[in-house]
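input
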Amino acid sequence: MDQLSAMRAFVRVVQTGSFSAAGRDMHTTQTTISKKVAALENHIGVKLLTRSSRDHALTQAGAEYYETCVNLLGELDEAEARARSDVALPRGVLRITAPVAFGRLLLAPIISEFFSLYPDIQVDLLLSDKHVDLISDGIDVAIRARQLEDSTSSPGTCLTTTCWYWLHLTISSNSASPLPPMIYSNITASPTPG
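output
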């Protein structure tokens, strides 16, 4: 027996005033509702309803059980709604680390857009050119970039006014607030000429 389903059937019978109305509300038959209530009574060992061919009434035990069921089912429904909203709306702290220049040039301008999409997420942005320990520092997302060198020139030089960067994005398993899947594409940036 599915006790929660039987409790819901019992509550609907009391609220609607009949087994057939409860069946309509729950998209099932009067017979199914009657069997669920009988199974519930058998399970707890107490008559909840006195039945006649045309009517039913709560017993004293049934009235007390009804109040308890309404409270329990209400709390369960609220808990399920809260759990669903936690998944639907991510919240918490998202710790991101990135190189200083990359963070200032590319991340800082888009953070405000991120806040408008996810207002319940606090972003902790650590800009550093040093590599950090993702686990011990509790980092959720690490972005590392380096300048790609032209293999035909001497190391560390760019032949054109635009130097391309290689970007590495790491998403740590530390993340406490899972975000909806996002699509990441190749990102290129050109440094400020100088």
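quick obs: The first strand starts at residue 49 and ends at 51.
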